[in-house]
Amino acid sequence: MMSEESDAQPIAPATATPDDRDAPPADTAPAAEPPVGDDRPAVNQHQRAVQLIQAVRAELGLALIGQQQVIDDVLCALLAGGHVLIEGVPGLGKTLLVRALARCFGGRFARIQFTPDLMPSDVTGHAVYDLASEQFKLRQGPVFTNLLLADEINRAPAKTQAALLEVMQERQVTLEGNALPVPRPFMVLATQNPIEQEGTYPLPEAELDRFMLKLRMDYPAHLEELELVRLVTRTARGDMLDVAALRPLLRERDVPVLQRICAELPIDDQVLDYAVRLVRATRDWPGLAFGAGPRASIALVRCARARALLHGGEFVTPDDLKACAPAVLRHRVRLAPELEIEGQDVDRVLAQLLAQVAAPRS
Fold first, then answer.
1. Which among 139, 314, 332, 341 would be 20 to 30 A from 14, CA to CA?
2. Can you say whether residue 322 is alpha, beta or left, with left for phi > 0 and alpha for psi between -120 and 50 degrees?
3. Reduced to 3 states, what is the DSSP secondary structure of residue 349?
């Protein structure tokens, strides 16, 4: 939960900025309407939130073709106030997705290219001696932003990766003994390449647990890749779609309101119990060396609430939990050594778990 939720401003209608493409059809953008205030019925706020997030979802789909599930999961993390680790081979659009989200979001955006020689101070900031004042002044690093892209995060050594631990959990950075809060909202979107291991440093378990979701970006389907190639090769802008044409639909002050509406979405006690049972089942499930901790239960419920809101639901269902569980759990559990030798996949074990743990029926 965010500490400043009570100070959140109402959601204003999404506005389009002039760009070099035609306006989208009426059903892809929310209709102009008065701002949603706290004095309006909750049902109106819910409907307006659904319209706004669906408009952002459609806009992101214009830049990232064939990755709708990944788009949905990233938006769920934004609504739930979590961080995302995106894993995939080069060329699938991991960086493009983050750039597109930053374009649709009116807040600040920063990118860090992680390399073996990157220092922790390059991430968080450092003290600089000012000759004019003869004093040390704090120079804030790129983490002082709203959306932070940690590109190829596993290429930096452990001490540099650890520089993100405090800011991801506490939303603050300690520099020279001073605790400096980062802007709200704050979200880390990190990428890594699963097939190239030379010169990489695996993320420690403590840092993996800070990510709400670990997403796997796969190759697009044939028709989707065909459409992607057709669109990109029509321009002279390189090998990816241009995000400059996307409309900034979300403002910085809109996100805390969306997060509050998401956090207030009802969840039945039986569904809540089902979420806890799913996570607890990983701790003694055959084929798993160790299971997920309580932070996974919290992340699963928060993500399920976000998914329900994204799809227009008025309450959380067991299907919302099942849909979120793989991304929430896959980086928080570890396969038993015998299954790793056999080449088994953690998602297959989690699929068996989801199929066998009984869901509430009423």
1. 314
2. alpha
3. helix
Query: Which CATH code is given to the segment(s) 265-362?
Result: 1.10.8.80
Ramachandran quadrant class, 265 (left: phi over 0; alpha: psi -120 to 50; beta: rest): beta
User: What percentage of the chain carries pLDDT values higher than 90?
Assistant: 43
Residue with tokens 């680790």: 85
Tokens of 47: 């409907």
Both tokens assigned to 126:
């450092």
Q: Which CATH superfamily is domain 54-253 in?
A: P-loop containing nucleotide triphosphate hydrolases (3.40.50.300)
Question: In this structure, what token pair is assigned to residue 134?
Answer: 């003869």
Supply 275's token pair: 């979420």
Domain boundaries for CATH 1.10.8.80 within the chain: 265-362
User: What gap in Å lies between CA 89 and CA 112, rounded to an integer?
Assistant: 19
* Interval 80-94: pLDDT, tens: 999 999 988 777 778
One DSSP character per residue, 241-273 reads --STTS---B-TTHHHHHHHHHHTS---HHHHH
Q: Are strands 178-181 and 147-151 parallel, antiparallel or unpaired?
A: unpaired
- How far apart are the C-alpha atoms of 298 and 234, rounded to whole Å? 45
* pTM: predicted TM-score of the whole model, two decimal places: 0.82
Strand spans (E) along the chain: 84-87, 109-113, 125-130, 135-140, 147-151, 172-175, 178-181, 187-192, 213-216, 288-290, 334-335
pLDDT one-digit tens code per residue, 201-215:
888 888 889 999 999
- Contact by Cβ (8 Å): 99, 148: no
231 has a pLDDT exceeding 70: yes
Every domain of the chain with CATH number 3.40.50.300 lies at 54-253
Helices (H) and strands (E) in the chain, counts: 14, 11
Backbone angles phi, psi at 193, to 5 degrees: -100, 120
User: Computed from CA positions of residues 304, 310, 314, 318, in that sequence, does the dihedral angle turn out positive or negative?
Assistant: negative
